[in-house]
Amino acid sequence: MLGADTFRSVIGRFASGVTIVTAVDDAGTDHGMTATAFASLSLIPPLVLVCVDSAATMHGVLERATHFAVGFLASGQEELSRRFGSGEAHRGGIPEPERFDGVGYSRGVGGVAILNDVLAHIECRVHDRHVAGDHMIVIGEVDSAVAHDERPLLYYRGGYRQLGG
Fold first, then answer.
1. Phi/psi of residue 80, each to 5°?
2. CATH says 4-162 is which class?
3. Distance between CA 30 and CA 100 in Å, rounded?
């Protein structure tokens, strides 16, 4: 059987964009997490998916949420990614309840936080959820999308990267 370290090493060679997924819990509190496990799923209807670790706080939030948003980070937003990183609070980072402090955002149609100055963002209604291994796959139907002309922030081999040229 393939070991977790080998699998992580191989998968780490797949460059991915960096996103922040936002949602609101039942009490009306904003939650957000950095995610690289994000993909488009279908053009008609427009569907995307995000994978959330079962140990993450966002797992419980997205189990019940009806809407979520995904902000695609631009090349200069590494610090924002770290701020919303699920493991950062354990390494002296910002605890989840404080992640939105000082961060500019507006409210989307579904009531979720749409982060300012991101490369692009989408707003989604939850379409479906599936448990797979130690993650939940959340499928969202895209209600709206906005893109800006910037360079993306990338994640490759355990670190942040930017496109050259």
1. -65, -40
2. mainly beta
3. 8
What pLDDT shows up at residue 165? 53
CA-based R_g, the chain, Å: 15
3-state secondary structure the chain: CCCHHHHHHHHCCCCEECEEEEEECCCCCEEEEEECCEEEEECCCCEEEEEEECCCHHHHHHHHCCEEEEEECECCCHHHHHHCCCCHHHHCCCCHHHCCCCCCEEECCCCCEEECCCCEEEEEEEEEEEEECCEEEEEEEEEEEEECCCCEEEEECCEEEECCC
Over residues 67-76, the mean pLDDT reads: 97
Whole-angstrom distance, CA of residue 93 vs CA of residue 96: 9
Structure confidence by residue, pLDDT tens digits, 51-67: 999 988 899 999 999 99
Nearest to 58 by CA among 108, 21, 90, 92: 21
Question: Do 34 and 18 form a contact (C-beta atoms < 8 A)?
Answer: yes
Residue 55 tokens, joined:
């140990």
For residues 66 and 64, what is the distance between their CA atoms, to the nearest angstrom?
7
